[in-house]
UniProtKB/TrEMBL annotation:
Gene3D superfamilies: ABC transporter type 1, transmembrane domain (1.20.1560.10), P-loop containing nucleotide triphosphate hydrolases (3.40.50.300). InterPro entries: AAA+_ATPase, ABC1_TM_dom, ABC1_TM_sf, ABC_transporter-like_ATP-bd, ABC_transpr_CbiO/EcfA_su, Cyc_pep_transpt_SyrD/YojI, ECF_ABC_transporter_ATP-bd, P-loop_NTPase. This is Cyclic peptide transporter. One of its GO terms (biological process) is peptide transport. Keywords: ATP-binding, Membrane, Nucleotide-binding, Transmembrane, Transmembrane helix, Transport. It is a multi-pass membrane protein. NCBIfam families: cyc_pep_trnsptr (TIGR01194). It is found in: Cell membrane. SMART domains: AAA. It comes from Magnetospirillum molischianum DSM 120. The chain crosses the membrane at residues 18-39, 51-69, 143-170, 245-263, 269-295. Residues 18-295 form the ABC transmembrane type-1 domain.
Length: 547
């Protein structure tokens, strides 16, 4: 059971603890049953005005054992599962941070999101059902043993009845499970349509025909999901009723069929019937919780599989002792770099290279090229996210490999075209935060957003404004190399001019090396050199033509 694997992920002995308390709870339960049966039998023999205080004391003790074992069991399972989930979440987040970039892209955000949020939620919401299933299973077995003690024949009858009933119930459950899966699929489709509604709100509002058409389609989807859900509810109800009928039928076998064959004289029918009535509770609990347990188990499987997958795609640079690079560099050299998506040699996949490029310290280099020519891909290779299949990157003659990659990445700050602005500054020491003010002024953001401590007081900004804040953060990192991917594309003409004519020269004065992807042909002269990418091939543009 994957849910139990999840429980034991941190080591310790939760299995034993659970089993111990489930056994204690079951002993308490059977003791309650046996005491009531014994007291009833005694009363029938000695008269109804006689109270056996000894048995009453045993009953209270059994009730206390049952109560405390149950409370411990349910509480403990919940606590153990929450601890395990917290542990797994932190471990998975750590693994995501250390994962190989390309392989993480393949895992996809959806899987990560589902496992870290929805799957963990399913488990923690249903933790009590694990305890219930365990306790109900053991208690049912204990009551069956009690019936065996009362009469081997009654035991056989009840065991066969329970097995047949269980089989019918499980068959119904399998059908229910299939319908449930269908319902989940339909609901996922509905969720997608709702996302369309929010993401495409503007487009929908702009066209009344699209809006009406979309409304009809989504209403139809709602109707369909409603029908499937009703069908699932009917299956659940049917299963419940049939389950109850099976038990009553079992009771009827005990009180009618056994005496009918003249076997009643050898069996204490009343005690067996009481035991059968008693076993209905734990058996229904077991069957009910098994369905929910299956969902928790599937969720645990999802989490554990993601954890294992992420462990398998840990970036190699995390597995080796990092080596530092000299703090001052003179040049970064890319030689014979070739990178192809989806593995080398696949003709259908896009590839860049072979690329030769030398970037000298303090230079401003522009990379230009049409849409899909490979500019962002080159930036990802340059930043060390994509490992080229051929070629190498050198810093002052030192080849960048697994051991030096971390130090190499530490040289680079970047604002990508699909940048993310964190509302908080992470990894920037408090004494550097004071340097943010002049940077915010330089980027004309000081009147719009400021740092309060290490947090921006506003990030509900336009894309161009957010990019300016992202550049502030990149500059606060004080790395020698700055990579900008179409940074100026979202800036207004005034600020675009300021960026190319004032800010870039200022960054050059500060000694930064800037590699910028740009389409702004008016300002190509702001670079020391310009390279043009054409279907993955990089060519220098002679300065007379470009700069
Ligand atoms: N993760 C990926 N897997 C496979 N192919 C990809 C992936 N990302 C990009 N590509 C392909 O690589 C090619 C180059 O993409 P890239 O984003 O580098 O272009 P670009 O020059 O930055 O384009 P744009 O100017 O439109 O931003 C495209 O044809 C794209 O389909």
């Amino acid at each position: 059971m994957r849910i139990i694997d999840l429980l034991t992920v941190q080591g310790g002995t939760p299995r034993l603890r659970l089993l111990g308390s489930a056994v204690a709870s079951s002993i308490g339960g059977v003791l309650l049953l046996a005491t009531v049966n014994l007291a009833a039998e005694k009363m029938a023999r000695t008269g109804f005005d006689q109270v056996d205080w000894g048995l009453a004391a045993v009953f209270i003790a059994a009730a206390a054992i049952y109560y405390y074992a149950e409370v411990f069991l349910v509480g403990r399972v919940g606590a153990d599962l929450e601890t395990a989930i917290d542990f797994m979440r932190v471990r998975i987040l750590g693994r995501i941070r250390r994962a190989d970039f390309v392989q993480l892209e393949r895992v996809g955000q959806q899987t990560l999101f589902e496992s870290v949020t929805q799957a963990t939620q399913t488990i923690s919401q249903n933790s009590q059902f694990i305890a219930l299933a365990l306790r109900s299973g053991i208690l049912s077995a204990a009551v069956l043993l009690y019936i065996l003690y009362l009469s081997p024949l009654a035991f056989v009858v009840v065991a066969v009845g329970v097995s047949v009933g269980g089989w019918i119930y499980a068959r119904l459950g399998a059908r229910l499970h299939r319908r449930h899966q269908e319902m989940m699929k339909e609901e996922a489709g509905l969720f997608e349509s709702l996302s369309d509604l929010f993401d495409g709100f503007k487009e929908i509002r702009l066209s009344s025909r699209r809006s009406a058409d979309f409304g009809l389609a989504i209403a139809e989807q709602f109707r369909h999901v409603g029908t499937v859900r009703l069908d699932v509810q009917t299956h659940i109800f049917n299963q419940f009723i049939i389950g109850q009928v099976i038990f009553y039928f079992l009771l009827a076998v005990v009180v009618f069929a056994i005496p009918a064959y003249g076997l009643g004289a050898h069996i204490d029918i009343v005690k067996v019937a009481t035991a059968v009535i008693f076993i209905i509770g734990p058996l229904s609990g077991l069957i009910h919780s098994l369905g929910i347990l299956a969902a928790s188990n599937a969720a645990a499987e999802k989490i554990l599989r993601l954890d294992a997958d992420l462990a398998g795609i840990e970036d190699v640079i995390e597995q080796v002792e990092p080596r530092s690079l000299p703090s001052d560099f003179s040049e970064i050299h890319l030689s014979g770099i070739r990178y192809a998506y989806d593995g080398a040699g696949d003709d259908s996949s896009f590839a860049i290279g072979p690329i030769d490029l030398t970037i000298k310290r303090g230079e401003i280099i522009f990379i230009t090229g049409g849409n899909g020519s490979g500019k962002s891909t080159l930036m990802k290779v340059l930043c060390g996210f994509y490992r080229p299949q051929n070629g190498r990157i050198d810093v002052d003659g030192t080849a960048i490999g697994s051991a030096t990659m971390r130090s190499y990445r530490e040289m680079i700050a970047a604002v990508y075209s699909d940048f993310h602005l964190f509302p908080r500054l992470y990894g920037i020491s408090p004494d550097r935060i004071a340097e943010a003010e002049p940077l915010l002024r330089m980027l004309e953001m000081d009147k719009i957003s400021n740092l309060h401590g290490n947090r921006f007081n506003r990030i509900d900004l336009s894309t161009g404004q957010k990019k300016r804040l992202a550049l502030v953060v990149a500059l606060l990192e004080q790395r020698p190399v700055l990579v900008l991917d179409e940074w100026a594309a979202d800036q207004d003409p005034h600020f675009r001019r300021r960026f190319y004519r004032e800010i870039l020269p200022e960054l050059r004065r500060r000694g930064l090396t800037v590699i910028a992807v740009t389409h702004d042909d008016v300002y190509f002269d702001a670079a020391d050199r310009r390279y043009h990418l054409d279907e993955g091939r990089l060519n220098i543009v002679p300065s007379a033509a470009g700069a």
